[in-house]
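Format notes (please read before filing issues)

Several people have asked whether sequences and structure tokens are stored in separate files. They are not. Every record keeps both together, in the order shown below: the sequence lines, then the token lines. Line labels are part of the format and must not be stripped during preprocessing.
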Amino acid sequence: MRMYSPDELDVMAEAYLKALDKLPVAQPTIELTQRLVEEIGAAVAKGMRDEDELAAAALARSNLRPEL
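Then the structure lines:
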């Protein structure tokens, strides 16, 4: 299991909140929440740090379409 720095955790938390704001559902399931967290964590582990990009990428990889 990878250990994340405090800065990485802050970026991940903000990206998750931004992804939640763009979800096409009002109440995410536990499975959806886990999927978003996994996707954001994987992208951070690869070096991505932009919160907006992280949120958009997690939604795209989770096959979700943000509300327009």
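For reference, the curators noted about this record: The chain has a mean pLDDT of 89. The radius of gyration is 11 Å.
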